[in-house]
Design goal:
elongated, 9-stranded antiparallel sheet, single chain, 9 strands
């Protein structure tokens, strides 16, 4: 059995496109950024809410209320994210459908959009091929580790007001 590589950073993120949203987990490896699509956290949020509602009706003969529903859904999301975190290294190693790989060497710009409503904060990744990836994730949680990964791959990175700009490969 081969040993699977452990990511530097892994957080929940939604990959957004023209007409699609792919919830899942975004993982940073030394040489690549990988999004693994998974709806487990969404299913677990619904299951958590249902469990709290059933317990509330059976024990108190009343609905769970807003706080009970939020606690059930929040607990479900946390459980779902824990499950996905365990699956990500295996799915990345297997590759295939639902796994989006962005080579760190192809990244030309990383920026963030602090828009909170209605879509939340966004992390934008531009590549040398002209492809842009948009994730619902906080730029501030990724910027330092992405800059370190780019520098480790031999690139000069400059922080700008809009985000990170990849200037050139050092030593060339």
């Amino acid at each position: 059995m081969t040993e699977m590589e452990v990511p530097i950073l892994m957080r929940p993120a939604v990959l957004t496109g023209a007409n699609r949203k792919s919830p899942g987990m975004l993982a940073l490896y030394p040489d690549r950024l990988v999004h693994v699509r998974s709806r487990i956290a969404n299913w677990c949020a619904g299951a958590g809410f249902i469990i709290i509602a059933v317990l509330s009706f059976s024990l108190a003969h009343a609905g769970p209320g807003a706080l009970g529903g939020a606690l059930g859904a929040g607990g479900g999301v946390m459980t779902g994210n824990a499950i996905v975190r365990r699956q990500v290294p295996r799915k990345v190693a297997a590759g295939g459908q639902g796994v989006t790989v962005i080579s760190v060497r192809s990244i030309t710009r990383v920026s963030g959009d602090k828009t909170r409503w209605p879509r939340g904060p966004r992390l934008l990744i531009s590549t040398s091929s002209g492809t842009e990836y948009v994730f619902r994730a906080k730029f501030s949680q990724w910027s330092a580790d992405l800059a370190d990964a780019l520098a480790a791959n031999g690139y000069s990175v400059q922080a700008t007001q809009a985000g990170l700009s990849v200037l050139s490969q050092t030593g060339s």
